[in-house]
Structures are given as structure tokens and as C-alpha cells.
Specification:
By secondary structure, the chain is α/β, with parallel strands linked by helices. It has a single domain, classed as NAD(P)-binding Rossmann-like Domain (Rossmann fold). It has ten helices and seven strands. The longest helix is centred in the middle third of the chain and has 28 residues. The chain is globular. The two termini are about 30 Å apart. The model has no long low-confidence stretch (mean pLDDT about 95).
Length: about 260
């Protein structure tokens, strides 16, 4: 995974940033991107401790690893507080943690599945953000960047309706909280990845379905986690995007054009 160290965004150096779901995939690439800019990063993981430690290994003096189950609201709150304690405060948070938890048709979904998907993908973003805001205020302002999805706009693929609905919540939460927190100097934006080749699709998307999805992309291929990183760094940098809030950057190879 690239650290994006070839970029140079001076105002990110020294920033204290929590990235949730940062042990693999897009989250890991984003955490490495911030580390490559000289930021101090709390790398959250749910189950993949080895992955989180690999991300932290290249910048042990500026990276800390934090464990927690984002489907548990108390644990989500604890993750934010622990990250702030270890970093000495927070200048930004990237709410990237989430998971489809299986492709299950609406009529087959149990109440337990509903709660787990919504808690992990939607409610955790709410909880992490409101827990982080006091720290961002103490820092004189900062940023919240949420990871939503192309699924929030198109309803998701087979068996992914609930996941897509949860991501729609994240997209509208981004817009609403951007209005609420702007007076505190906190910018709230989001990145909406399309089909990105990660373990997410390895686990949940059969080869024929993935091929069909890629067939709708003008660039004729899936993206990579590293190709998402620039959008996050751009939104985190006040120097580059200081007049942006409530916006969603679509990173999807042209699959959805709005």
C-alpha cells in the first residue's frame, strides 16, 4: 500500500486524526496517506489487529492502534476518547468503518441483521461524530470525513439494500451536520467510493456479479483503495478545500455521474 508520500500537503503535518476501519482496504490506504503527510493517526480496527499494526509499522512514532466494535455504541464512544487521549486531542476524524455483513435479500433479513448493519454502518457514524466534536472544538475547528458509497445513490446491488439504505443515512447526515457544525469551524464532507477492489468484494460479491458491475463503469475496471486516498486528503486540508462543506466526492470511474 502506498503512503502517498509523493504528495505534499503542508497543513496536514502534525494533525491528529482518527481513521476508523483502518486495518485494510480503503481505510488502511487513507491512514497511510495521512501518515505520509506527517499527520499523527489513530488506526482503528475491529478484528484485524495484524493489519492495523502493519499500517502503523512504517510510522511508529506517529501512529497508534485502537480496537473497538463500532456496532456497539459504547465501544464506538470509547474508541474516539481513546484516540484523543493517545494523540493528545483530535483535529479530524474519518468515519470509514463499515461492512455489508452479507448479501441478504430484504425479505430474508432478520431483526438482528437489521440492527447489526444499521448500528455498524449508520449509527456508529453518528456516535463517533458527536463524540469527536468537543475535541474538534477544543482544537479550534477541524474536519469530519465520512465514507458513504455509490450504493447510497443507486440502492445497492443484489442483497445489499439495507447496506445501501444505511449509506444513504450517512450521506444525508454529512449534509445536515455540515450545517450544524460550521459555526464551530468544523467542515463535514464525505467520499462515496464505487466498485473498489478490496476484501469487501472478495468476501461478498460473486465473480459474475462483480463482472456485471465493472461492465457498467466507463473506465472498464474496478478502482483501487489508493485511488480513493486523494479525495480524503483534499477534504482534510483546509488549505485545499477550506470553502467546502456538506459535499460528497464520488470516486467511481464514471459509473455514476451527477
Amino acid at each position: 500500500m502506498s503512503s502517498r508520500s509523493e504528495l505534499n500537503i503542508p497543513d496536514l503535518a502534525g494533525k491528529r486524526i482518527l481513521v476508523t476501519g483502518a486495518s485494510a482496504g480503503i481505510g488502511a490506504a487513507v491512514a497511510l496517506g495521512f501518515l505520509g503527510q506527517g499527520a499523527r493517526v489513530a488506526i482503528h480496527y475491529g478484528a484485524n489487529r495484524a493489519g492495523a499494526e502493519r499500517v502503523a509499522a512504517g510510522a511508529a512514532d506517529r501512529a497508534v492502534v485502537v480496537h473497538g466494535d463500532l456496532a456497539d455504541l459504547a465501544d464506538t464512544e470509547r474508541v474516539v476518547h481513546e484516540a484523543a487521549r493517545l494523540l493528545g486531542g483530535l483535529d479530524g476524524i474519518v468515519n470509514n468503518g463499515g461492512n455489508m455483513l452479507g448479501r441478504i435479500p430484504t425479505a430474508a433479513a432478520t431483526a438482528e441483521h437489521f440492527d447489526r448493519v444499521v448500528d455498524l454502518n449508520a449509527r456508529s457514524v453518528w456516535q463517533a461524530s458527536i463524540t469527536a466534536v468537543p475535541y474538534l472544538r477544543q482544537a479550534g475547528g477541524g474536519f469530519i470525513i465520512n465514507t458513504t458509497s455509490i450504493a447510497a445513490r443507486n440502492g445497492g446491488g443484489q442483497g445489499a439494500v439495507l447496506y445501501a439504505a444505511a449509506k444513504s443515512f450517512v450521506s444525508n447526515l454529512t449534509r445536515g451536520q455540515a450545517k450544524e457544525f460550521v459555526a464551530d469551524g468544523i467542515r463535514v464532507n464525505a467520499v462515496a467510493p464505487g466498485v473498489i477492489q478490496t476484501a469487501f468484494h472478495d468476501r461478498y460479491t460473486p465473480a459474475d456479479l462483480l463482472s456485471a458491475q465493472v461492465g457498467t463503469i466507463p473506465m472498464a475496471r474496478a478502482g483501487t483503495p489508493e485511488e480513493c486516498v486523494g479525495a480524503y486528503l483534499f477534504l482534510a486540508s483546509k488549505e485545499l478545500s477550506g470553502y467546502l462543506t456538506g459535499q460528497i466526492i464520488e470516486v467511481n470511474g464514471g459509473q455514476l455521474m451527477v
